[in-house]
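ugh ok so i messed up the first submission bc i forgot one of the chains. this is the corrected input, ALL of the components this time, i swear. 1077 residues overall. if the numbers dont match what u have on ur side tell me asap before i send this to the collaborators (the ones from the other lab, u know who)
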Amino acid sequence: MHWKMTFRVLLTAAAVASVAVFARTSSGVEPAETDRLTLQTPNEASTAAVNSPLAKDGRHFVGVGGCAAANCHGGDGSKGIVGSEYSIWIQDDKHAEAYSVLYNETSQRMAKLLKLDKPAHQAALCLNCHAPQNDPPFTGNHAHGSLSALLDGVSCEACHGAASDWLGPHVRHDWARKSPAEKAALGFRETKNLWNRSKVCADCHVGEPGRDVNHDLYAAGHPRLFFEMSAFHTNMPAHWDRNDDRQRTGPGRDQSAFEAKLWAIGQLASAEAALDLLTHRAENTRDDFALRDKDAKYPSGETVAVWPEFAETGCFACHHNLDSPSWRQKRGYASRNAGGYPWGTWLFPILPTVVDSAGTSKLTEAESPLSKLTREMARPYPNRQAVISSAKDLQAVLTKSAQTIDSQQLTAEQIAGWMKGVSVVGTSASQQSWDGATQSWLSLTAIHQGLTDVSGTVGQTSERSRQINTSLELIRSHLEFPKGFDSPENFSSDPANVISTELQKIHDLLD
Amino acid sequence: MPTYFRLMKRVIWTSAAGLSAVAAFQAFSPEAPMVQSVAVAQDALGDSTTPQFQGLRSCVPCHNEAIGDKNPFVTMSREFCVLNEVSIFASDKHRQAYELLEGDLGKHMEKILAQSKGDANYKVTTDKQCLACHANYRWKEGFEQPPLFEFGVTCESCHGPSSLWEGPHDDPRWRKISAEEKEQKYGMIDVRNPVRRAQQCFSCHVGNVREGKVVTHEMYAAGHPPLPGIEIETFSQQMPTHWRTLQEKGEFKFREDYIKSNFPGLEHSPLNDLAKTKSVIIGGTMALRETVNLFASQAVDQDSQAWPELAVFDCSACHHDLAAPSWRQKRGYGKSLPGRPQMFAWPEALVKLGIRQRAGDDDAAFQKDWDAYHGKMEELRRVLDRRPFGDPKAIQAVALGEDGLVAWLDQLANDVFKSPVGKEDAGRTLQTLVSLPPETYPDFHSARQLVWAIRTVLSEMNTDLPNFTATPADESDKQAIDRALANLKVYQNWEAGDRAAAQKKVNDLLTQLELTEKLRLDLPAGDKYVIAEQLPESLKAIGGYDPAWFRTQLQELAGSIKASSD
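and heres the new structure output, hopefully the right one now
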C-alpha cells in the first residue's frame, strides 16, 4: 500500500512534467527536429535480441508523458471517454500498477528464489511484461535513464506500440487518414480488429518469446496466467467507447454480436499465441541450465526455454493433495494414459466448438493437429519435433478460423449454436478439470451476453436469460477456491456433477 | 492359528515329509555336494543347478509350529529358529500381497489400466509388473504363474528359491557354510546380513529394475497406494518379526563357526552389537543406495517412451494443493531451481547415521566423509537440475559410475556392517537423530524416518539382553533339547517383559508429543488392516503435515530424552 501511494505521487509528478513538455505539440506547433520525442536510442539498442517481437525494430518508448496532456488523452472525463484515456488508465486500470508490484514481498522473494542477478524491478525477465518500456528489451535498462518511464508500468505504448516514430505523425491532422498499414509501418499497433486486440493482450497474458512465465516463475510465486479474452476485456476499465466496438461488430450499436465475436476470436488468438510460445519453448530448449553453483544466477536478461515445460500442463492435474477415494481415478483419464499429462487444459478445451463452427477443420478428430498435439504433450518428455510440427499445423487452422469468423456477421442462431456447443463440450471438460469447468463458465457468460445483445434484448431480461444466469451463478459458486488456497482444493466429482447438470439445463433452454 | 494352515500342513506333511526326511538325514558334510541331496525334492522345473521356487509347501511342514508346540522331529533346531515362522507369517501382510490383486482395489486398477493400455483383456493377476512384487515372481519363460503364487510374498520371496537348499538347510552343519556360498551356489539369500536384508526389502518397497519390480506413475494414477518411505527395522518389527536376532537366540550348535562364516570381515563379535540399531543405520544408507540405483537404472535414453518415469520423483513435490501463502515458497528451494521435480527426500534422512558410525568420535573424519557424501549428492543434483527430470546419461554416470554415489554408499553400508555398534555408538546415533541442522525442514516421510529410527534405537538401548543358560560341557542331546526349550521360554518372557516395557516407555513419549498420530508411526501392518481403507486418513496426514511443527516436536523429544538419561 505504501509503495502504491508513493508511486501515485511520483506518477502524478511525472504527468505534470510531461504536460509541460507537450504543451507545444498539443497546441499544434510542429516541434523542431531536435526537440522531437524520438529520443536518442542507447547504443545497446542495436544489440538487442534479434527476432523478438519485443525488439520493435529499434523503436523505443516515449512514455506516458507523450500521451497524458490534458488536451490530448489526459482529460478529466468531462470530454467523455475519448480524450480521457490516460486519466482512466492512471486512476482505475491495474496495468498502471504493473511496475510497482515488482517491489512487493512476493516479487522480492521470487527474485531471491530464482537467484536473479538483479532485483525484480530491474530484471528484464520481469520488466518485459511489467514495464515493457525497459529499453533496449531484455536488458532491464531504464528507458533513457529515467525511472519515471519504468514507473508507468504497462502504459499506452505497451499495447499501442512504441511511439518514437508515430507520436509525431499521430498528432497531425492527417493521422486519421492514414491506412492501418501506414500506421503499422510507424510501429503503431492497430487494436480495433479483435484478433489484433486479443494478440496484444496475449503478448503478456499468455506469453511470447521473451515474456515467458514458465513453471520456474510459478514455483517462485508468480500468480498463474488465467487469460480469457472476453472476461479480461470486460473487467478492464475501458478507456475507449465500448459502443464503438458494438457498432463496428454490428449489426448496430443497440444490437451487436460484439461480446460473442470477441469471445470466439479471443479463444482462437489466445490459443494461437500459446502455440507460438510452445513452439518457441520446443525450439530453444536449454538443457544445460542449472543454478547449483554458488555464483550461478538465473539470467534476468534472456528467456530460459525449458523442456518439458510444466506450465503447458493443467496446474491442478498435479497440484492437488493425494486423496482416497480419488475422484480423478473414478472420473478416468479420458483419452490419455493414466498418469499422463493433461496438456492445454486452460486454453484449449472449448476451442473445438469455435473451430468446428467456422468449418475450417474438425479438431475433435483423432488425427487433427489438436489431438496429435494433446497426445504427444501427454508424455512426460514429449518429442519436440513432433510438437513443433503439430503446433504449426494447429496455428494455421486457428488463424484461418479467426479470419472466417471475423468476416462473418454473426446471427443469434449461430451464437446460440455456440452456447449449445460449449454446454456439451463443457460437460465433459468440467468432469475432467476445474480448468475445463471454469473455461466453460467464462465462455457461456460471454456468449450469453453476446446472444442477449444481438437479439436487442439488453435491459429486458427474458425468462430464459434469467434462468441461464441462475445456472451460471450456481456454476460460479462451485468454482471458487477455498480460503487459504490457490487451487480448487474441494473441486471433485460433486461440484463437477452440479456443473454438468447446470450445463445440461442451459443446453435444454436453448432448444 | 488359521485352520487353513493346519489343514495344509497335514496334507502336505504326508507327501513332503518323506522327501524332507530323505534330504535331512542323508549323509551330509560340507565336502559332499548338497545339490545331490535335494535332487529328489526337485520338481521338474528346470535344470538341477539353477535354484527354483517351490512355494510355501516346502516350508510348512517344519516351520508351521504354534508357539509351545513340540515337534519331535525338529526340536534340535529350535535353539536356532523357533519353527513358528509360518504361523507368524499367517498374520503377516505379505501373505495378502496376491489376494489384493483380486480384491476391490485390484479390480479398480485393472479397469483403469485396461483403458490406459488400450487392452480390454488386461489383467493385473497376470501382469508381470504386478506379480513381480505381489507374488515375487521372477518371471521365467514358459511359466504362467509361480508355484503357489496365490500366497503372495512368501518365504522364498525373501529367503530365495529353495529347490537347492531346502534339503540341506535343516542340518545344523548348514550353519558352517558361508553366506556367500549359500547364495551363490544354493540360492539362499543371507537375510541375516542387514545389508543384504535391506536390499531384499527395498527391491519391492523402493523398486528394482533388474528384478522387474517397478511401480510406475501409471499404476499410481490407477490407484496403487503410494509407496511410503520405509525404515527397515520399523517395517520388520511390525511385519511382525518371525525371527530372533543373533543376540536374542542364545547359544546354538556351531555358533562360533556360524558367526565366522556368516559375518565375514568382522573383527569383533557380532554378539556384542546392538543388532537393531545397526540395522537402522545400515538400512538408512541402503535406502538411498537403492533409491539412487532405481533412479539411475530408469534414466535411460531420453527418447525412450519409458523415460522419465515420474514414479521415482517425490510425489508431494508436485502433488499438493496450492496454498496461499505457500510454506514451500517461504522455505525456499535450496540450491535447486524452483519448480523442478525432485528426488524423494526421505532416503537421505538417515545417511548421516552411517557416516557418523564410520567416523565414531572422530569429528574430522566425519566432516571429511560428510563433505564427500555431499559432493556426490551435489553432482547428482546438478545433472538432475539441468532440466526437468535431469540429463539421463549424466545421471547414470554420476550414480552408477565406478566412483559413483551407489558405489560410495555400498562401501559405507559394508563398513558399518563391519564396525562394532555398542551402546556408546547407539547414543551417538541418537544424538545425530535429534539434532536437526538449523533451517532444515524435513518432509513427512523424512520426519517418519527420523522418529522411527529414534524409537528403535532408544528402545534397544534401554533393554538388556535376556539371560540365557550357557551350554554346559558334555551336554547330552536330551539336555540340549531341554536347554533350547528353556532358553526359548527365557526369550519369550523377555520379549513380553523387559523389551515390551522399554518399547512402551518410548511409545508413550512419542504419543504424548502427538508424533505417533500425526506421523502415523504405527503401520497398518498385519492382516487386521487394509492399507486401502487407511489411505484416506494417511493421505490426509501427509497433506496436513507441517515441517515447522515437526521441528518443535523433535526439539521437545530431544529434551525429554536428555532429561531421562541425565
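quick check: Residues 258-283 of chain A form the longest helix (26 residues). that seems consistent at least. Chain A touches chain B through 52 residues (CB under 8 Å).
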